[in-house]
Amino acid sequence: MRTLRPLLLALIIAGAFYLYTSSRRPQPQPTTGSSGPLSWFNGDKNISLTEAAGPENLDPEEAINVNVYKKAIPSVVNIKSRAVSYNFFYGLVPEEGQGTGFILDKEGHVLTNYHVVANAQKVEVTLHNRKTVPAEVVGADRHFDLAVLKISGTDFSPVTLGDSRTLQVGMKVFAIGNPFGLSGTMTRGIVSSIRSVRGPSGDSIDEAIQTDAAINPGNSGGPLLNSRGEVVGINSMIFTGGAEQSAGIGFAIPINTAKAVLNDLVNYGRVRRPSLGIAGLPIGPELADQMGLAADYGVLIMQVTPGSAAERSGLHGGNQRAMLGNTPIMLGGDLIVAIDGDNVEDMQDLSNALTKHKAGDTVTVTVYRGKKKIDVRLTLGEARTA
Questions:
Q1: Which of 23, 117, 167, 299 falls 20 to 30 Å from 79 in CA-CA distance?
Q2: Is 115 a catalytic residue?
Q3: Which residue has the higher pLDDT, 151 or 200?
């Protein structure tokens, strides 16, 4: 018994020493990394992380991108249209489409493409605040591929409209829209070209803006913006090369084209397209030589519509029957060579000249009557619609 006492006392002393030393062992503490207390010593390994010292300033190019987006995005809306068609068995088939638009004014007018809402029985607009409201189509024009919607509400944020005439190839542009349903998407590119193209309806879009900014299904009707956040075009279509996605070639309707017809769309529901009231024949050097005309270009007036602007102004139609191949024509009428000083070399030039005006405008038409060159002032009429 006496021999166990020293052993027991030694064990008690050893246990007390262990408890004392373990209680004073240091606990894991954070170690300091390069930018703050991010590393912890857990007794096994030390993990060191590096964190940025703070938010960095935007470089000039990033600042432009961010400012354009912040300025424009409150005005951009998503558009959903619903229509009903019939299948082979005359059963009703619901169809749904989507696109983009942008708010024009405090009254809630929204501009988009005609093809986004064509034949729609129901149209809904989703605002930037994710609120969805019904919309009414108040005006549409298939030729220009434009439509104006009206939504109810207050506190709208309208866009700022720019001047598409100032665009030059190489300038930066930005597209905001709803590609593939991904709302609020912005892409960036440049003005690749400015050219005439055929729109979705087959009609010509004059001075269309070609861009390499990515435009995909769902972007139609959305704004194309300059680096100041001003709308310079309405994204309308893409060249896909057979694929249903962007191939780097997109087209936008110039905003000046839209501005010229907005009042007609809002007030009359249609564009009051101007008309001379003639049937014309484009003239080239070969025809001019055969007919003995005073100019080797222009549009020869074959017939004047009764009661039209051309008849009221005294323009002359043809009075001699002839054949051009298998086509009957009328010779002897006035040869139009210019409108307001801009040369008219063919029917496309004539159409372009009239597109710059609206019904009721007064223009100067320059014609050759025989060998005599004269100017005729006339007030444009309104084209008849089918």
A1: 167
A2: yes
A3: 151
